[in-house]
Amino acid sequence: TISDPCLFQTEVDGKKVLIRIYVDDILIACSDHNIIQRFKDKLKETYKIKDMGQLDWYLGMRFLRDFNSNVITLNQTKYIEDTVSKYTNWIGKRTHRDIPMQANLVLQKYTEAYRDNLTEKQLYLLDNFPYRQIIGCLLYISIWTRPDISFAIGKLCKFNKHPTLEAIYATQWLLQYIHGTKHLGLVFEKGNLILTVYVDSSFGDCVEDRRSTAGMIQYLGYSPIQWDSFVANTTVPLSVAEAEYVGAHEAGKMTMSNRNLLNELEFRQDNITLYEDNKACIAIAFQEASKRATKHIEIQLHYIRDLVKRQ
Question: Which terminal residue of the chain, N or C, has fewer Cβ atoms less than 10 Å from its own Cβ?
Answer without folding.
Answer: C
